[in-house]
TrEMBL record, chain A:
<dbReference type="InterPro" id="IPR009019">
    <property type="entry name" value="KH_sf_prok-type"/>
</dbReference>
<dbReference type="GO" id="GO:0009252">
    <property type="term" value="P:peptidoglycan biosynthetic process"/>
</dbReference>
<dbReference type="GO" id="GO:0005737">
    <property type="term" value="C:cytoplasm"/>
</dbReference>
<keyword id="KW-0143">Chaperone</keyword>
<dbReference type="InterPro" id="IPR020627">
    <property type="entry name" value="KhpA"/>
</dbReference>
<comment type="function">
    <text>A probable RNA chaperone. Forms a complex with KhpB which binds to cellular RNA and controls its expression. Plays a role in peptidoglycan (PG) homeostasis and cell length regulation.</text>
</comment>
<keyword id="KW-0133">Cell shape</keyword>
<comment type="subunit">
    <text>Forms a complex with KhpB.</text>
</comment>
<dbReference type="GO" id="GO:0003723">
    <property type="term" value="F:RNA binding"/>
</dbReference>
UniProtKB/TrEMBL annotation, chain B:
<dbReference type="Pfam" id="PF14804">
    <property type="entry name" value="Jag_N"/>
</dbReference>
<dbReference type="InterPro" id="IPR034079">
    <property type="entry name" value="R3H_KhpB"/>
</dbReference>
<dbReference type="GO" id="GO:0071555">
    <property type="term" value="P:cell wall organization"/>
</dbReference>
<dbReference type="GO" id="GO:0008360">
    <property type="term" value="P:regulation of cell shape"/>
</dbReference>
<keyword id="KW-0143">Chaperone</keyword>
<comment type="subunit">
    <text>Forms a complex with KhpA.</text>
</comment>
<keyword id="KW-0133">Cell shape</keyword>
<dbReference type="GO" id="GO:0003723">
    <property type="term" value="F:RNA binding"/>
</dbReference>
<dbReference type="InterPro" id="IPR001374">
    <property type="entry name" value="R3H_dom"/>
</dbReference>
Length: 76, 226
């Protein structure tokens, strides 16, 4: 799952090497924190958060298959 | 990205031999000179060949296919992404996800939410650093066609009801692409007009009966395309 989050973020940014994803369990929920190069923030969030929303939607679908609850946090 | 390293007496020679090996025209590659040639002294001493690295620039089709397959693989879904030709009326690219039936439900998601998210992301990626805009549509398990047919049926029923009751009918909130299908479908009818009300994600299509003999009532009949 972490690999999926990383792949999505890296595909969207212009500096993939700066993408860092950390994983943390908070109760029932698994939290993925995505940090990108400051100049790439817009590329993972998008206008009105549309890209972030799409990332969350894809990751949630994958989590659903494994009966997990996930949250994707994008650090700006 | 497919890459080869080739050598030759000159840079041009090296590139030419790389192109033969890759089997693509010059326009589709990116060349990096690793080493300039050095002319031998006295005709044969200490000369060095040119060395070049030649990479095939992926096409937008390849970029999209690789991205979608990459995402699905990491979701634990085995799928192949095919390019459909002659499917798109706007010159865009139409992609189809071919996977097992039980996986298709996951790829599509509730009311197509996962498919729409994937489609949105592939549009962003296809248009990165690109001049002009190319529209990518993504389908799986024939969802788009089935969805269109069910929306058209729904539109038909709602239009009948609007005409029968002489009152506007509000459909449930739906995304812009779905609303467009309804507007387009009902455009052919003269007994109703359509508009949309509210703001996303709660925007709804309203179907308004056209009352021809009676004087116009206070129902607004603005016509929107979306």
């Amino acid at each position: 799952m972490k690999e999926l989050v990383e792949y999505l973020a890296k595909s969207l940014v212009s500096q993939p090497d700066a993408v860092v994803v950390t994983e943390e369990q908070r109760g029932e929920t698994r939290v993925y924190r995505v940090s990108v190069h400051p100049s790439d923030t817009g590329k993972v969030i998008g206008r009105h958060g549309r890209i972030a929303k799409a990332i969350r939607s894809v990751v949630s679908a994958a989590a659903h298959r494994e009966n997990q609850q996930v949250v994707v946090d994008i650090e700006a | 990205m497919k890459t080869v390293v080739a050598t030759g007496r000159t840079v041009e020679d090296a590139v030419r031999s790389a192109l033969v090996r890759l089997g693509v025209p010059k326009e589709r590659v990116q060349v990096r000179v690793l080493q300039e040639p050095v002319k031998p002294r006295f005709g044969f001493f200490g000369g060095r060949d040119a060395r070049v690295e030649v990479s095939v620039i992926p096409t937008v089709e390849e970029i999209c296919q690789e991205f979608v397959e990459g995402v699905l693989r990491r979701m634990g879904i085995r799928a192949e992404v095919h390019v459909r030709t002659g499917r798109s009326e706007d010159g865009g690219l139409s992609l189809y996800v071919d996977c097992a039936e039980e996986d298709a439900a996951l790829v599509i998601g509730r009311r197509g939410s996962t498919l729409d998210a994937l489609q949105y992301l592939v549009n962003v990626i296809a248009n990165q650093g690109r001049e002009g805009y190319i529209r990518i549509s993504l389908d799986c398990g024939d969802y788009r066609r089935r969805r269109r047919e069910s929306l058209e049926k729904k539109a038909e029923r709602a239009a009948e009801r609007a005409v029968r009751t002489k009152r506007p009918v509000w459909l449930e909130a739906m995304p812009a692409s779905d609303r467009k299908i309804i507007h387009t479908y009902l455009q052919g009818r003269t007994d109703v007009t359509t508009t949309s009300e509210g703001s996303d994600p709660h925007r709804k299509v309203v179907i308004i009966p056209v009352v021809s003999s009676e004087p116009a009532r206070s129902v607004r009949t603005r016509r929107h395309s979306r």
